[in-house]
Design brief:
This protein has about 200 residues and is mainly alpha-helical. Helix content is about 50%, strand content about 10%. The strands form two sheets. The chain has a three-stranded antiparallel sheet with strand order 1-3-2. A three-stranded antiparallel sheet has the order 4-6-5.
Length: about 200
């Protein structure tokens, strides 16, 4: 799921030109089709926003023609760039201490050791990330319960905590770390199905 080099390049360009608002297609580019595909994929991932057709006529024209598309970076796009810059090789934080069993009524999610490492790495690189409250993730790691004899941990998440961890794993997946992202999504889907079954 990691972004390709050309997608990162276009995202950086949108960030650099954020002050001008909508950034129109470069009609002089020799790879217009490839760039159009890349910008659509960024928009599908929520990293940029595409201008509606009603806005395109107002975007400054290049070479006497209106652009076929225009885009601007989103908060998630800015977070992705900041996280990528900050995440050189952050050291994993301390291993969470075993605590009491999770509180009933929350979603009980199982994390692998590598998932916990990803979250510690995220905290080390997320100083400029705005789309999530990193304190929420710190509190979740403090509450993590070790599964004896394994490198697995159980966390009991509220909706806000689940959303915060999901955002962290998603940002990490943009840099190629999709394994933890997909595992977390499967765990959330599993607990949601279990909750629905018990409610019947």
């Amino acid at each position: 799921m990691g972004l390709a080099a050309d997608q990162w390049g276009m995202l950086e360009d949108l960030e650099a030109r954020r002050a001008q608002g909508w950034v129109g297609e470069d009609l002089a580019a020799s790879d217009r089709r490839r760039r159009a595909t890349a910008i659509r994929r960024l928009a599908e991932d929520g990293l940029c926003e595409l201008a509606p057709d009603t806005v395109l006529p107002t975007v400054p024209a290049q070479g006497g023609h209106s652009p076929a598309w225009a885009a601007r970076i989103t908060l998630a796009g800015t977070d992705a760039l900041q996280y990528r810059r900050n995440r050189a090789a952050p050291a994993a934080g301390p291993v969470p201490e075993p605590v009491e069993p999770p509180v009933a009524g929350r979603h009980h999610i199982e994390l692998h050791g590598v998932d916990v490492d990803v979250l510690h790495g995220f905290l080390a690189a997320a100083a400029d990330v705005q789309g999530v409250d990193t304190q929420i993730i710190r509190e979740v790691l403090k509450q993590a319960r070790a599964v004896p004899g394994t490198r697995r941990w159980v966390v009991a998440l509220t909706g806000a905590e689940e959303k915060a961890l999901g955002y962290a794993f998603w940002l990490d997946s943009l840099l190629g770390g999709s394994r933890s992202h997909y595992h977390f999504r499967r765990e959330c889907d599993r607990t949601a199905r279990t909750s629905r079954t018990r409610a019947r």
